[in-house]
Design brief:
It is built from nine helices and no strands. With 189 residues, the chain is an all-alpha fold.
Length: 189
């Protein structure tokens, strides 16, 4: 007679598929509960495998947290930057970008960002990834702003419309980051 109380054995998967399932499980866990929820045991429970199997695929948890951070925020960056519409003026595009990033449906990614800044102070692998992702955001925004200036003769000649793409990108990021952090504690208009 079979013991019904015994947990089912994890299904054997090819290594590549098992690795993908562990990463997917970790991404889901991080977006639901934040980066600080990523432990070997928590990821194993999410995926339905033993902690030893997670540790086999990702032996250094600090590096795994950094990898999951990058997976989450890079996907958002690519999605948001891809939505830039070159047929619309810079102001409209930047307003759309800000509204998109501050949408309540993105609180999970905002939480990942906020936690990454705190955790990255002690997790060097994460700190490196955070800085790299911030640089990628800056570069993408700087490029979009520079292209909009190049496409608009008035922005090139009218002194009142002179914009420095580099500093504008940094200010935009700082504003969005601050407002995102505020929204997590429901302190934003």
């Amino acid at each position: 007679m079979k013991n019904a109380s015994r947990a089912a054995e994890p299904r054997r998967l090819p290594p590549e598929e098992r690795e993908r399932s562990i990463v997917r499980g970790a991404v889901t866990l991080a977006t639901e509960s934040g980066l600080e929820a990523l432990t070997v045991r928590a990821v194993a429970a999410r995926v339905g495998v033993t902690p030893a199997l997670v540790a086999h695929y990702r032996p250094v948890m600090e590096s795994f947290v950094a990898e999951i951070f990058t997976t989450i925020v890079a996907a958002e960056r690519e999605e948001v930057i891809a939505s830039y519409d070159s047929d619309v003026d810079l102001r409209t595009n930047l307003l759309r970008l800000i509204e998109t990033l501050l949408d309540d449906s993105r609180d999970d990614v905002a939480m990942v960002w906020v936690q990454s800044w705190a955790l990255g102070a002690r997790n060097e692998a994460l700190g490196i990834r955070v800085r790299a992702e911030m640089d990628l955001w800056h570069s993408a925004l700087e490029d979009l702003i520079a292209r909009a200036i190049a496409d608009d003769p008035a922005m090139q000649t009218d002194p009142a419309m002179q914009i420095d793409p580099d500093s504008s990108a940094w200010m935009l990021l700082a504003m969005v980051d601050g407002m995102s952090a505020h929204s997590l504690v429901h302190w934003a208009p």
